[in-house]
């Protein structure tokens, strides 16, 4: 497994990370606990070190699942990245964000207990709290870092101005943000800013939540509690237009002798050594396919064919529903 450094100040991590959100029966429908744990084990055996989660995934379930998977494993072989700050009700509804310094410290305390670790490798606010200056939040994270409870400070889904303000307070290892063939907004201002400041990118949604995986099956989520049932890109004519893009991408993949998902992941990885794709595999077969993307070398001709199949800005529909888009500092 090739390793890369998260920015100029962050830890060395595997060139592919495992996003664990889908392993909680919360946002992507039912998940199998035993298969999820087996997938984490298979990832680590393949050399994957970066495990990404959030304290609000399954309201703590995801962290406890990771803790179970890490039992008996070498803690130093896992780089655990945790997002915090999202508030949720007992019915699962999102209630906003809280990044006040005292809340940050409370969130961390519970995460350490659920994960059964003495430190978290990368800790980051999940979104910008509009009621709390980012400087205050980062200041609290500096205190936690200096006390040894976290190793590195990250950001998630924030724009260029917020990135600069945060970096003025403390070194930022990486920005976690959606980046894929269908979501290329970071290329305009955010990516140039992170590169100027030496901040890495951990890219989630590299398969657009399965839409460009080549495996999308609308019947699989029908009637299920699945985030994609309300996502604009999976609705009506938007879905038809986006699936047409997938078929064009599939043709490129087949000509190269690889899968559609592998081409999509390889494209994100090809954007630079400062970008680590996170794959949300929750089954070992999907993990194996994703790992195969690391062996895909895209030539200039391949990249041109991919660009022709899925041009920048071709996606139909926004990446989140309007209410969720309103919370994204990265989209302002």
UniProtKB/TrEMBL annotation:
Q: Does the keyword Oxidoreductase apply?
A: yes
Please report the stretch or stretches of sequence annotated as the NADP-dependent oxidoreductase domain.
Answer: 16-309
| InterPro entries named among the record's database cross-references | Aldo-Keto_reductase, NAD(P)_OxRdtase_dom_sf, NADP_OxRdtase_dom
**SUPFAM superfamilies membership:** NAD(P)-linked oxidoreductase (SSF51430)
- Pfam families associated with the record: Aldo_ket_red (PF00248)
Q: Which UniProt keywords apply?
A: Oxidoreductase
Keyword Oxidoreductase set for record: yes
**What is this protein called in UniProt?**
Aldo/keto reductase
**Source organism of this protein record:** Caulobacter hibisci
């Amino acid at each position: 497994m090739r390793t890369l450094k998260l920015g100029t100040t962050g830890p060395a991590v595997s060139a592919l990370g495992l996003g664990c959100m889908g392993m909680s029966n919360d946002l992507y429908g039912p998940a199998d606990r035993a298969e999820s744990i087996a997938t984490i084990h298979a990832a680590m055996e393949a050399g994957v070190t970066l495990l990404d989660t959030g304290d609000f995934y399954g309201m703590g379930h995801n962290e406890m699942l990771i803790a179970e998977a890490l039992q008996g494993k070498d803690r130093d072989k896992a780089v655990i990245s945790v997002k915090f700050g999202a508030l949720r009700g007992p019915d699962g509804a999102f209630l906003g964000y809280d990044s006040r310094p005292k809340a940050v410290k409370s969130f961390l305390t519970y995460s350490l207990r659920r994960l059964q670790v003495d430190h978290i490798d990368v800790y980051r606010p999940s979104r910008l709290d509009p009621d709390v200056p980012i400087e205050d939040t980062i200041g609290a994270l500096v205190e936690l870092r200096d006390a040894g409870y976290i190793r590195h400070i990250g950001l998630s889904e924030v724009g260029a101005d917020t990135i600069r303000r945060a970096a003025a307070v403390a070194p930022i290892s990486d920005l976690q943000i959606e980046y894929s063939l269908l979501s290329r907004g970071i290329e305009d201002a955010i990516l140039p800013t992170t590169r100027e400041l030496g901040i890495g990118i951990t890219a989630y949604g590299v398969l657009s939540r399965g839409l460009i995986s080549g495996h999308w099956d609308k019947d699989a989520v029908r009637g299920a509690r699945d985030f994609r049932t309300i996502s604009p890109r999976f609705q009506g004519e938007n879905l038809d237009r986006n699936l047409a893009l997938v078929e064009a991408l599939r043709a490129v993949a087949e000509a190269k002798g690889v899968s559609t998902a592998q081409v999509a992941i390889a494209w994100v990885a090809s954007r630079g050594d400062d970008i680590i794709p996170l794959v949300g595999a929750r089954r070992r077969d999907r993990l194996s396919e994703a790992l195969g993307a690391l062996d895909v070398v895209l030539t200039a001709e391949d990249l041109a064919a991919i660009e022709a199949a899925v041009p920048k800005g071709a996606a139909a529909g926004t990446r989140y529903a309007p209410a969720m888009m309103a919370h994204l500092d990265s989209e302002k």
